[in-house]
């Protein structure tokens, strides 16, 4: 599948934004959020910026952007429509929290709002992932790991955003157990990172096995006549289908990019977490490096998610779904 | 509304005979010609006279080489289609190598994912006859339906910013300004070998349904569960291909008995 820039930006930026809102919601819900209004408003606004840029970028992908509003209508059947509805459901929750949040953070209403925010934020990412994982035409995506990878990567990138925001606070907490320094929080971030790393490795193994039961012979129903070879294409030049669905990257290329994505998404952020635990003063620098690293890594990972996936229509063009390595 | 309508008894579709299709692309041309000016047109091309012309076609014809199975590789001379052999009885244990032309267009599935993934309601399946259409005034061009279609039936028009697809010539088949005999899809009308048949595949007594039953018509990729309506008739079994033909016994020629002229001719031809 062709990795279009607008979709890559949308899924990575929006994913991080909704992940950030999810983490804020969880921390609010368990009553551990640091006191003060600004410390809630700043990450909420960053989340709004990330999700808005992401959604605008996805609108740029459309052939008729001015009709984008119509996409909210078919939530009964379409995951894309549900995603749009869920994205809009987040907004009132975010605005209510931004408006009503006070320094007293143990109020049940704030906790309830936190639960609501975490729920609608994850619901949006859930719908995004289901757009891809529900497509039976793309065997690499029609796999159970796609959904948890999307959710975990959103939570992971959002978590590093919150860590970075907390680390750069103008008034660092006097107590040594702030959300950006306390061991349980850093541990939670590390566990999320390791979990998404393991799932992503599993996904790549699944892609390598090239699990596509269909072949050009079964797709055309001509298998009884022997091995099929496409001797003449229906068109002399590339067309929409070959450009959009026939995008296949060279194997070596993809192996290197996977290593790059792994290091950016998993190794380097874990290294930064470890360094900050051992040497707390490097907190702002470490958190910023980790954030830049996971965002770049998520982008490379998403590029591979598209570039490595094959669409079954390529079978009609004689393509064979050999494993990628 | 992209939720699917209740299953209709009428299922209009095409039956494509891979045995008689000669790969002339007349169906594709006729389709492009009609639909460029039809109710769902135009079908503009980009760079149409340049180096890399591209544009939307509802119908694409592939050409495949089938290697054959068993000892028939390559195709033995003298193998001819034999209409008297019913295919489903004698699906060849061994088949000769052959060329098969394969027209590919929308199969007007009974449970089309291209319709249900549509976020706007632009894609829809008609309740009355099962034709899958795109309302080009509602389409936002997100292209998710093209991803959801395993058959490559949907192509995105860069010029118009919307998805376009086969309409089963819905603007012909009900068109009362046309003679009744002309109320068929343009591709069916154009086919010089009558390899394309149009009709109601929901009616077991229709000509197309009988043809499908007789020739063991197949659905494409049924395992994906989209329940395509169109059917493809596989190439008929080839007669006389059970055993490879024995080589003609090599004739001996006694040159000494030939006249000088024939001997000279033989020498020239033997070079």
In short:
Chain A is mainly α.
Commentary on this structure:
The complex is a heterodimer of chains A (325) and B (271). By secondary structure, chain A is mainly alpha-helical. Chain A has a single domain (5-62, 70-216, 232-317), classed as Formate dehydrogenase/DMSO reductase fold (Up-down Bundle). Chain A is built from 10 helices and 1 strand. Chain B has 271 residues and is of the alpha+beta class. Chain B has a single domain (12-239), classed as Alpha-Beta Plaits. Helix content of chain B is 18%, strand content 18%. Chain B has helices at residues 26-37, 113-116, 144-148, 170-173, 186-190, 207-215, 260-270; strands spanning 12-17, 45-46, 54-55, 60-66, 80-81, 98-104, 123-125, 132-134, 154-157, 162-165, 196-200, 231-233, 238-239. A 3-stranded mixed β-sheet of chain B has the order 11-1-12. In chain B, strands 2-3 form a two-stranded antiparallel sheet. In chain B, strand 2 and strand 3 form a beta hairpin. Chain B is elongated. Residues 72-92 of chain B have low confidence and may be disordered.
Q: How many alpha or pi helices of chain A?
A: 10
- By CATH, the topology of chain B is Alpha-Beta Plaits
CATH architecture tag of chain A: Up-down Bundle
The CATH superfamily title of chain A? Formate dehydrogenase/DMSO reductase domain
Strand order of the largest sheet of chain B: 11-1-12
How many helices of chain B does DSSP assign?
Answer: 7
Biggest sheet of chain A, open or closed, and with what strands and sense? none
What is the H/E order of chain A? HHHHHHHEHHH
Report the CATH architecture of chain B.
2-Layer Sandwich
Largest sheet entry of chain B: 3 strands, mixed
Tell me the number of strands of chain A: 1
Rg for CA atoms of chain A: 22 Å
The level 1 CATH classification of chain B is Alpha Beta
Helix content of chain A: 55-70%
Mean pLDDT of chain A: 90
Overall geometric form of chain A? globular
What Rg of chain B, in angstroms, do the CA atoms define? 24 Å
